[in-house]
Amino acid sequence: MGETPTAPPALVEYELRDAVAIIRLARPDSRNAINTRMLEELLEHLAAAREDEAVRVLVVSSNDHLGLSAGADVREELDEAGRVRRMQLFADLYDQLTAFPKPTVAACHGACVGGGAEIAVACDLRVGGSNMRLRFPGAALGVPVGPARLVTLAGLSVAKYLLLSAKEVNAEQALRWGLIHKVAPGARTEEVAIELATSCAASPPESVARLKEMLHGWDGVVERSRAEGEGQVEWQRTGPGLPHRD
Fold this sequence. Notes:
Elements lengths: L11 E6 L2 E6 L10 H16 L5 E6 L4 E3 L10 H19 L5 E5 L2 E3 L1 H8 L2 E5 L3 E3 L2 H4 L5 H8 L1 H10 L3 E2 H6 L5 E3 L4 H13 L3 H15 L1 H18 L8
Parallel strand pairs: 2-3, 3-5, 4-6, 5-7, 6-8, 7-10
Antiparallel strand pairs: 1-2, 8-9
Helix pairs in contact: 1-2, 2-3, 2-10, 5-6, 5-10
């Protein structure tokens, strides 16, 4: 009899610590570059945390304090249909994070670039590592992503600077602009994010969920995120799309 094939290692880790669910990107050898399988696993874990009544707050982190994520894996070998599907998964991920009914906290250590930066700003709260490097390279790549969530977070002026210049900012600048709420030593970023999440989890979950629903309803970020995602997918389908290697 042949040996049973070994399942590939998970690209996303999931942990429940009391009332806090922790989702960690776990592909450090590739700087946590986000490929199709990672997106699928992220969406599966998000769905599990959303439905689990024991979860009151969600933390998004990585198992490498040198980087949350360097963005989309442009080295992933995909045909045209696969590239469109991957972009749809990205749009779904941003939408699901933005509309997540419970508070979300991003541990922004090291490189938070492209998709990593979008994950961070789709969360409600952010702890920046002292080693954080935040960058939205959409303008350089031609991809129409970022305004829906960034404008509501940082205001029009800061969003224009970050998106149109594609410049990198550090934790100190991000704190001044309100992009992050706390700065922690790089290796302790996740720990501080969990502490913040735990403080949120101490409040009655029904009132917290209602507050978040009110904030999002008055702001309209959920609808803007959905519209932006539709544009991303159409750009991938009919435009130049993300760079790729055949």
